[in-house]
Amino acid sequence: MLDAYQAEIIALTEQAERRQRLREQGQQLRARVHEIEQQRRDRAAELRLLEGVDAFCTSIRDAMVAPSFEGTQKVLQLVVQRIVVGRITASPLSMSCRAGRFDCNRNII
What we know:
About 65% of the residues lie in helices and about 10% in strands. It is mainly alpha-helical. Strands 1-2 form a two-stranded antiparallel sheet. The protein has a two-stranded antiparallel ribbon with strand order 3-4.
């Protein structure tokens, strides 16, 4: 462009306009590259999450084939956060087993 100006093929104002357009296009391209890089990072994070979920599901599936007593107990504790019977609320953390009966929040035995 500088050579075209020096050869008087384009005017100084036209050269300035072209330079400004090129700057703007460069900024737009850099912004697009940044956007694409962010999308790539987001997709990589999603893939890692999906792989983790898949591994978790596989481990649960494998554990359910022949679960141990401890494994079954842990699953039930996670599934049942609390049990409400009438006015009595029992949760795995508040229960203790005494001769087959539970000591719940109201200490009913």
